[in-house]
Amino acid sequence: MGTWDTGPFDNDTAADFANALDGAEPEAREALVRGVLMRTIEATGYLTEAEEAVAAAALIAAQCPGGQPVDMSYGPETPMPLFPADLRALADEALARIASDEDGPASNWVEPEDWKQWRSILTRLRAVLAPAPPSIALFDVQP
User: Fold this and answer.
1) In a 10 Å sphere around its CB, with 0-12 CB exposed, 13-18 middle and 19+ buried, how is residue 61 labelled?
2) In 3D, which of 136, 14, 37, 18 has the Cα closest to residue 89?
3) Which of 19, 54, 61, 127 is the most buried (most CB within 10 A)?
4) Helix (H, G, I), strand (E, B), or coil: what is residue 3?
5) How far apart are CA 64 and CA 111, in angstroms?
6) Tens-place pLDDT, residues 39-54
7) What is the spatial distance between Cα 101 and Cα 56, in angstroms, rounded to a whole number?
């Protein structure tokens, strides 16, 4: 994998995924994103599409409240469709799977600071994708 920074699209594999999204018909883009997330969640052994799943999660998170826009230098150049809400949970689950895979992308970082920054990006994405549920006011119980 050619990696030049820690962002979701800062590697050859994710940049290729962005190109595939750009080349796809608008109505096929959601299926590409959903597919890479599902294959990552269901994978056994080595996560072959982890970099693409992180990129897909970043695209979904960009559409959520508190989400950050995707770096257009290496991300898709064409606008993404409005993703359905159920993709948020899939993206979060895929990121959890990636973050917990000690032999996967987490092991590829040579510099500890890069690894920490990459993990921080995954944590921020997950916070946007799976925000805390709204609190429900409890009844005031009198003794």
Assistant:
1) buried
2) 37
3) 54
4) strand
5) 31
6) 999 998 888 999 999 9
7) 18
